[in-house]
Amino acid sequence: MLRSPIRTVIAAATATALLAAGGAYAVDVALDPGTSAVTLSKPFQIKAGETNPVDFPGLKGDKPGEPLPKGYLAVGYKVTVTQGSDFLHPSFTMSCPAGRKLFTFATDGKVTAQIVGPNPFVRRSSFDYQGKRSWAVIVDYNRRELRDGQTISGTIYGLCR
Q1: Which terminus of the chain is more solvent-facing, meaning fewer CB atoms within 10 Å of its CB: N or C?
Q2: How far is CA 109 from CA 32, 53, 98, 153, in A?
Q3: For residue range 44-80, what is the model confidence (pLDDT) as tens digits?
C-alpha cells in the first residue's frame, strides 16, 4: 500500500504541535499499521539531593548515581519511538519550573536531542538556551539501527538552576 506523503507530513506536524503545546502526553500519531508513532511522557522532576540519572555536560562534580548538586533540578521526558515506513522527528518544548532557567541538556537510552531554538523552526547558535526558561527540542534517533515495527526509548533531560 502506498503511503501519501501529505498524510505523513500531517502526522508529523500534528505530533509536533501537540507535543509543543505541553498539554498532550502519550501522543500516538500512527495513522495506519506500519506508520511511525511516538509517545512522550508527562514531565517529571529530579530535585537536588536525589539520585542523578546522567552526566550533565558542563556541570562539574556530577556523576550518575550520585546526588544531584545543590541548586539544580532536572526535568525529564521519557520518549518512545516505534518505527514505521516513514521517519518522524517529533519535537516538544523543554520548560523549567517558574524561577529557574535552563543550564544544559542530557539524554539516556536510544534517543538524543537536537536543541533547536525558542521553537522547533528557529535554529540556535552556540548555547543560546542557557538562561532561558524553555527551549524547543527535536527527538532524534539512529534510524539505521531501527527496522519497521521496532521500538526504542530513552529520556531527554533539561537541567535547570
Answers
A1: N
A2: 27, 11, 28, 6
A3: 999 999 999 999 998 988 899 999 999 999 999 999 9
Question: Closest by alpha carbon to 54, among 92, 99, 16, 109?
Answer: 109
Beta bridge partners of 138: 91, 114
Q: What are phi and psi of 8, to 5 degrees?
A: -65, -45
Residue 76 Cα to chain centre, angstroms = 8
Selection from 137, 151, 13 nearest residue 75 by Cα:
137
| CA-wise closest residue to 120 among 101, 140, 144 | 140
Instruction: Report residue 103 as a C-alpha cell.
Output: 543550564
Q: Both ends of the chain: CA-CA distance in Å?
A: 50
Q: How far apart are CA 44 and CA 73, in angstroms?
A: 10
Tell the residue number behind the cell numbers 556523576, with chain if given: 63
Q: Which three cell numbers stand for residue 153?
A: 526509548
Cβ atoms of 15 and 27 closer than 8 Å: yes
pLDDT in tens, 133-159: 988 898 999 888 888 889 999 999 999
Q: What pTM does this model have?
A: 0.75
d(CA 16, CA 11): 9
Greatest pairwise CA separation for the chain in angstroms: 55
